[in-house]
Amino acid sequence: MQSQYQKLVDSLKSASALLNLERKSQLHQDVTSICNYLVNPSFRIAVFGPFNHGKSTLLNAILGNRTLPIDLIPTTGAAITVKYGSDVRTRIMLIDGTEIYRSGTQVLQQFAILDGDRQMRKDVASVEVFCSHPFLETGVEFLDLPGTNDREEQDNLVREQLLSADLVVQLLDARKLMTLGERENLRDWLLDRGIKTVIFVANFINLLEPEEQKQVQNRLLFVAESFRAKLPPGFSNLYRVDALPALRARLKGDVAEANSSGLVAFETALQNIAGILQQNHGSVRLPRVEAIATQIQQSLKAKIDPIATEVKSLVDKQNAKVEIKEKAVNLIKQGFTNSISELQDWLSFPKLLAKYQADAAVALAENNFKSWETNTLKKDLNQLQIATVKWLYQAYEFFQTERPEDLLIPFPSEPTITLPPKPNHQSDLSETGSIAVGGGIGWLLGGPVGAAVVGSISYLLNKNIQQQEGKSANESYHQQVAKLCIAATEDYFSSFSTQGLSILAAYDGKAEKVISLEVNQEPLEITNKRQELQRLQNIFNQLLRELETAKISVNYQPYQEIPQTKTVNTRYLTQPEKFKTSAQVQKNTTKTNNTHQQVSSASKSVTEKNTQQVSPSPKKSASPRPEELDSKFNNWELDEEIARMKAEMRSPGFKTHKQQNTTQNNQTPNPPKTQTPKDKINHAYSILGLESNASLTEVKQAYRTLVKKWHPDLFVGKPQQQKQAEEKMHLLNEAYTILTDTI
Asked: Which residues is 144 bridged to in the sheet?
């Protein structure tokens, strides 16, 4: 028995310790008792009842001598365990560990009876009496308990000891039976702890008149039947024993008187019941374990469930934050990849020539290259650089990994040319004075000569001069100068492309450290709470397993571990193969694949220069296709999504402007709803064509629809309509900002 239930005992003790139960609490005392009970191999019979009911007298009658103290006042002041021994002796253990071992039972007068103030001794831990008796030799122990209904501390001791008794003998005084309330309290207390093996013994019936005896006997039957004792079939739970006459008869050896006192019948039943229950010890003990274990489980659940709810809430919040960051890093990677690809494509040598060479050659011929470079090329480059760098600053705000560097792509030195020798015939010049081209030289191409050179640039690009070898026999001086301008700008763009792509490749490599999200450990707060929860759940589940192993029914399911917080390890991956194409390869490709766009751009520049009209922006072209407009709108949505997530994450840097002119400024948050006039909100709804109770989803949908209708890129080449579209977009943006900040 001891080894069979040792793990269950260990689980009960661990659970009790984890609950931090007070030592004097009923549950702590019950756990201690039930654990001692489970590992005790003996079959224990407890005799209890109110003081002065003859408990010690009855036990002495069974044992056949005056082993236990008997008096007319409550005497037993400790739980006395009677065990088998070759001779009568007494062992007393004190709380401080002192052991007192004496022959006989005289020492009980000092340690095991109430003092003059009817108080139990505080220093006694246990009292054991050994004597030679055949019944005790079968592994049975008797437990003589202090009288109840005298002092509270005695009642508590009795209840604690009853929990570790296999069979309970409840002694009743036939002269004053328990009231209904007392019987129900006793029954409830015993049954709540799974104590159902109870025998009632009525004492002092011999002191009643015959007629009274019959009435009391009927009442005793009712008491016994109402308790619903669980004894082996065929045995009653009610007996009559006149304890004092029985003891006298046993001491005198008077068998007839012992029979008439009821002692023999009770002893016979007691020995038979004990023998049967000993064969199935578990059926007696396990129901009591179930009752106490249920209380332990309820107490554990009362601690586990609130902590589990808190941990789950913390985990859910942490996972939500990680998911937002994960979504942000994916959006940032996408935005950065698109931006750097756009800049890389812009820096490709063929694209630079196609878009800028004609205007650059004309500017060089007119000695106006530096101004053109600043107003056109630098402006376009700055926009692309800012669009690229802003994603790294978005990443830095979110993840605080490594502060990004600025992306600075320098321009090559201004191209210069050396003029060919002047022709001898005047018709090739058509004007007086010097003709020269070169940055900073101070020579000018003016009048018809300048116009002729500019026109030659357009003509030569149109003739695809890259395929020509040598100098044409009838080539004019203006065409020679134009060729030099074209070649100089080609070298300029080749150098610019090569250096720009190299810088961009290095910058792309550094982005890996900036666009990086690593969440490998959960916050310490969650870890600490989880560890506390895990300790409680582990002991709960362990107790559950041991109860099931002992075939004790359980009403709970084991706890499952709450999943760990989400871990993420993602970063931007560089793509160096994007930048492997050299400027020389691009240059050679361009020489064999010059496009009509160069001719159109050059011709347009020549025409507008000669008519003294304002030169249009090189970026202007035909109206964008619908898919191009959708792409621009999607990019806008990415920016909006990032801004929204930053607000959710309450990023500390969300409302600040970026320094050193490296990123676009974040939009300044609009005033809260309490500061926005009602008519301004209503006007915003009206601009978007919505009712004043429209939802945020409806606002976003209406805004998307109107943006696609009024985007200024739809009206390229139509100045008046484009201006109207820009004004309309301004109103739409204001309305959208107001409503998204107030709904």
From this structure: 47, 80
Asked if 673 and 741 count as a contact pair (C-beta separation under 8 A), the reply is: yes
Q: What is the edge-to-edge ordering of all strands in the sheet holding 238-240?
A: 99-103, 89-94, 124-131, 80-84, 140-144, 43-48, 167-173, 198-203, 238-240
Q: What is the DSSP string of 349-384?
A: HHHHIIIIIHHHHHHHHTT-HHHHIIIIIHHHHHHH
Q: With beta carbons less than 8 A apart as the criterion, state whether 357 and 618 touch.
A: no
Q: How far apart are CA 172 and CA 241, in angstroms?
A: 10
Secondary structure (DSSP) of 96-143: TS-EEEEESSTTHHHHSB--TTS---SSEEEEEEEE--HHHHTTEEEE
Q: Evaluate whether 242 touches 204 at the Cβ level (below 8 Å).
A: yes
Q: What single DSSP character describes residue 426?
A: G
Q: Distance of CA 450 to CAs 360, 433, 446, 478, 600, Å?
A: 15, 12, 5, 8, 19
Cα distance between residue 625 and residue 158, in whole Å: 94
DSSP state of 167: E
Rounded Cα gap, residues 665 and 390, in angstroms:
9
Exposed/middle/buried for residue 257 (C-beta within 10 Å: 0-12, 13-18, 19+) = middle
Residue 301, CB-side half-sphere exposure with 13 Å CA sphere: 13
Strand-pair partners of 172: 202
- Pairing type for strands 238-240 and 43-48 reads unpaired
Task: Locate 292 and state its tokens.
Answer: 């106490």
Q: What is the pLDDT of residue 15?
A: 92
Q: DSSP 3-state assignment of 83?
A: strand
Q: What percent of the chain has pLDDT over 90?
A: 27
Check residue 357 and report its DSSP letter: I
Nearest residue to 199 (alpha-carbon basis) of 177, 166, 248: 166
341 and 507 in contact (C-beta within 8 Å)?
no
* DSSP structure class, residue 145: P
pTM of the model: 0.58
- The residue type found at 500 is G
Q: In 228-280, which residue ranges form alpha helices assigned H by DSSP?
A: 243-252, 255-260, 263-279
Within 8 A by CB and 6+ apart from 686, the residues are: none
Q: Cβ neighbours of residue 454 under 8 Å, at least 6 residues apart?
A: 362, 365, 366, 482, 605, 606, 609, 610
Among residues 167, 159, 128, 158, the alpha carbon closest in space to that of 44 is found at 167
The mean-pLDDT minimum among 98-107, 143-152, 434-443 falls in 434-443
| pLDDT: which is higher, 661 or 167 | 167
Tokens of 615: 């030169």
Measured in degrees and rounded to the nearest 5, phi and psi for residue 107 equal -65, -20
**What token pair was written down for 260?**
């008439």
pLDDT score recorded for residue 630: 52
d(CA 569, CA 133): 77
The phi-psi region of residue 612 (left if phi > 0; otherwise alpha if psi is between -120 and 50; otherwise beta) is left
CA–CA distance, 89 with 67 (Å, rounded to integer): 10
pLDDT confidence bin for 119, thresholds 50/70/90: low
Buried residues in 508-544 as b, exposed as e (16+ CB within 10 A): beebeebbbbebeebeeebeebbeebeebbebbbbbb
**Which amino acid, 553?**
S
Element of type H or E holding 684: helix 678-687
The C-alpha atoms of residue 321 and residue 530 are separated, in whole angstroms, by 19
Residue 624's nearest CA partner among 704, 708, 700 is: 708
Residues forming a β-bridge with 199: 169
pLDDT of 644:
59
- CA end-to-end span of the chain: 71
| DSSP secondary structure of 206-243 | GGS-HHHHHHHHHHHHHHHHHH-----TT--SEEE--H
pLDDT tens-digit map of 672-704: 444 457 888 888 899 989 988 888 888 888 887
Among candidate residues 217, 242, 167, the one with its CA nearest the CA of residue 197: 167
3-state secondary structure of 2: coil
Phi, psi (5° rounding) for residue 662? -105, -20
Query: What is the C-alpha radius of gyration for the chain, rounded to an integer number of angstroms?
Result: 52
